[in-house]
Design goal:
Blueprint (H helix, E strand, L loop, with lengths): L1 E9 L1 H13 L3 E8 L3 H18 L6 E5 L4 H7 L1 H4 L4 E5 L13 H4 L3 H14 L2 E4 L2 H16 L9 H7 L1 E3 L24 E4 L9 H13 L5 E4 L9 H9 L4 E4 L5 H10 L2 E3 L9 H8 L3 E5 L13 H4 E2 L5 H10 L1 H4 L13 H13 L7
Parallel strand pairs: 1-2, 1-3, 3-4, 4-5, 5-6, 7-8, 8-9, 10-11, 11-12
Helix pairs in contact: 2-3, 9-10, 9-14
Amino acid sequence: MKIVLLEPYFAGSHRSWAEGYRQHSRHQLEILSLPGSHWKWRMHGGAISLAKRYIEQQLKPDLILATDMLDLNLFLSLTRKVTANIPTAIYFHENQLTYPWSPKDEDTKQQRDNHYSFINYASALTADRVFFNSQYHCDTFLQALPAFLKAFPDHQETDRAALIKAKSSVLHLGLDLKAMDAIKPPKPEKPNRAVILWNHRWEYDKNPDFFFKVLTDIAERGVEFKAIILGQQYGKQPECFEHFRNQYADRILHYGYVASREEYVKWLCMADILPVTSQHDFFGASIVEAMYCDVIPLLPNRLAYPEHLPKQFHRTFFYDKDDELTNRLQRMIFDVRVLRPQKVAHFIEKYDWSSLSKLYDEQLEGVTKPNT
């Protein structure tokens, strides 16, 4: 089976996912992509550029697989002479309908953010199959659609949400976890103090203000710990990062993004505890990667996180209210010698491509045009 994968934002988890599936699939994948920058422009104009390349290369796939960053309707309209009979699927890494926009973004003040949500909605309506990277993602998108459509003045067509639901299913994010085994340090030399990890994007939806407030509160109680601060920065970073760095430089083992995968894995293996404060997460790849390195998670009991761990372990690894986090984390710091021998990697091995690629292949083989 020949698949063309359309990715207008070829960076980060989008790129890793596309390349990982191409490597592990039994199908033949051709990736058409654009650089991962200017995400709003990619959603507007990416379909035009990729349609041009699709036609120029005279591709004849059995399936077109797009991601949520593509305006699928625009792409198909520009290529209709050669794509009219080809089934299509869309994979949602995220969506703009339920993604928490920054209050500083000018588009929210003028409600231009609704346009990006509408692109996602119309693309899902057009695709023959719709896949989401978590059950949480699928549920929240489908639940939000009716209210979103009712906000328009007339001809809201709210029944279209049911059509999308009928062709939607979950394909959890595939990750190349086992490739990390070859670059894990055999026995990382950890300090005597517990090591706290941050390995997410440096953006407001990950709630770094609360994360560093918790660490500051614990430090002010006289509790000793070390910290590793990883993750990519986009634009202006929240001030809390530099504030914590200036105040507690002697506690920080590493600060900033690392380009090398080997170095990234090395720092993950050095960490002990991953307290998560995110306000939103459709899947949580950084959390899964840390867990694969046996970093013990302390997660909010919401978003996509409960899908990662069996229910019988939720009381161990989840907190229900934000005001619980400080005391829970402090107890874990005190018990670090008990925590370090514990293993959590086996919980999330299910997301490795060796487990998921066959499921992806089977699901995509089943995508057909209506009435065919």
